[in-house]
């Protein structure tokens, strides 16, 4: 079974993090986001992976090469992002049998994908409390009878998670859908045609996370860091303490006086300490530096980023090559207890999280004693002045 993985997206809702990395390549635990989808597809029995690439395509190609975990890999290019059906159609030349299509920015439990591969036609269905923002299925005795987008009055609580097993004839239908109201060629319109033609099974998905916005990158890391088994291949000082599920990759160092509470990952080339406190689900990327007197909690620190002295950073995402001046402090909680808001595509939106810190784009730099308010987004290359309180995006 061929698995088509849609990875051409730019990830505009993830900006500024996606200014230096395409969304599918953002780090989630010890691999890029899309590698989790690829791994799940391989575990489910995919005999070929076809990545549909576009934005920063070379980053995806360089990572997966011609073969991944023993499975041949092909690439199809989508030059313009005209929708998910348009993206899958780019892989048409590889589709001469029934096939699976997966969003490259969603995390699924592996059992769900295995079940999806075994049944055709089938879709993944995940149960949510409030289905109104999603594509919602009508389901009768395990068979999908309809899908409606963002309904005011949802027919069920089971929603589409971007995982489809289509029969061979649907490959031709990928190019036969009309543009939707939002101007895209939608794979859900292909699904609607399959639903009309055949009995489509609703495969229960136990766990799912769509990773579109910065706090979802934190949630993705919370999920996947918790699945890592403790192993220490780097250098850990005898007076450092690693508690719980902590991974220190070969080539990483942890200095004296450091306490790391798992789940946490310290990637190769990173160095931590002396005297740092790392807790929550924290990801410290390749060649990052976390120095003296720094506390990091539930944070993603991407590669080559520096948090050298006396800082607190909680529930935040620091992009690549960020530098925090000594004493930079991050707020991650509102005094009124309401969920923290942040900016997505120019709009203030609720993260739904009581605790959320900041998003720092690649190459952002704070000066000494900068205070960053909860929900602030620093754009790529942004700077602050010494002692500044940053209350608005920069
Ligand atoms: P989206 O999350 O809707 O799009 P995106 O990844 O570009 O992100 P944003 O909305 O923040 O800009 O896409 C769902 C999946 O489909 C994702 O894996 C990207 C992929 N995709 C394509 O490959 N080509 C396309 O034309 C579109 C619209 C999506």
TrEMBL record:
Where would I find the Mannose-1-phosphate guanyltransferase C-terminal domain in this sequence?
Answer: 261-351
* EC primary class: transferase
Documented EC number(s):
2.3.1.157, 2.7.7.23
What GO molecular function terms would the record report? glucosamine-1-phosphate N-acetyltransferase activity; UDP-N-acetylglucosamine diphosphorylase activity
The reply on keyword Nucleotidyltransferase is yes
Q: Which Pfam families match?
A: GMPPB_C, NTP_transferase
List the protein's name.
Bifunctional protein GlmU
């Amino acid at each position: 079974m061929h698995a088509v993985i849609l990875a051409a997206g730019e990830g505009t809702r993830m900006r500024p993090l996606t200014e230096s990395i395409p969304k599918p390549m953002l780090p989630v635990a010890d691999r890029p986001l899309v590698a989790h989808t690829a791994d799940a597809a391989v575990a489910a029995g995919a005999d070929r992976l076809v990545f549909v690439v576009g934005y920063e395509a070379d980053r995806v190609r360089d990572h997966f090469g011609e073969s991944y975990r023993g499975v041949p890999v092909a690439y199809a290019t989508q030059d313009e992002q005209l929708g998910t059906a348009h993206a899958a159609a780019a892989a048409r030349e590889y589709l001469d049998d029934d096939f699976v299509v997966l969003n490259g920015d969603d995390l699924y439990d592996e059992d769900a994908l295995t079940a999806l591969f075994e049944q055709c036609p089938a879709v993944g269905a995940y149960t949510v409390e409030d289905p109104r923002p999603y594509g919602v299925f009508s389901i009768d005795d395990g068979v999908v009878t309809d899908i409606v987008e963002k309904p005011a009055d949802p027919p069920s609580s089971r929603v589409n998670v971007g995982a489809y097993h289509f029969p061979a004839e649907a490959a031709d239908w990928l190019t036969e859908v009309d543009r939707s109201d939002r101007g895209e060629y939608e794979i859900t319109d292909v699904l609607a045609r399959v639903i009309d033609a055949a009995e489509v099974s609703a495969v229960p998905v136990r766990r799912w996370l769509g990773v579109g916005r910065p706090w979802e990158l934190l949630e993705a890391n919370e999920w996947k860091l918790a699945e890592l088994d403790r192993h220490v291949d780097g250098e850990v000082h005898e007076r450092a303490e690693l508690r719980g599920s902590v991974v220190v990759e070969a080539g990483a160092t942890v200095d004296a006086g450091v306490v790391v509470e798992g789940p946490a990952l310290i990637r190769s080339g990173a160095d931590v300490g002396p005297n740092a406190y790392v807790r929550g689900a924290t990801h410290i990327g390749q060649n990052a530096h976390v120095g003296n007197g720094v506390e990091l909690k539930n944070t993603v620190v991407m590669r080559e980023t520096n948090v050298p002295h006396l800082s607190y950073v909680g529930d935040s995402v620091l992009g690549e090559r960020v530098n925090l001046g000594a004493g930079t402090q991050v707020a991650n909680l509102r005094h009124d207890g309401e969920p923290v808001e942040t900016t997505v595509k120019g709009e203030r939106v609720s993260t739904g999280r009581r605790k959320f810190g900041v998003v720092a784009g690649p190459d952002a730099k704070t000066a000494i004693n900068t205070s960053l308010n909860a929900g602030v987004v620093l754009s790529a290359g942004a700077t602050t002045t010494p002692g500044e309180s940053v209350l608005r995006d920069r």
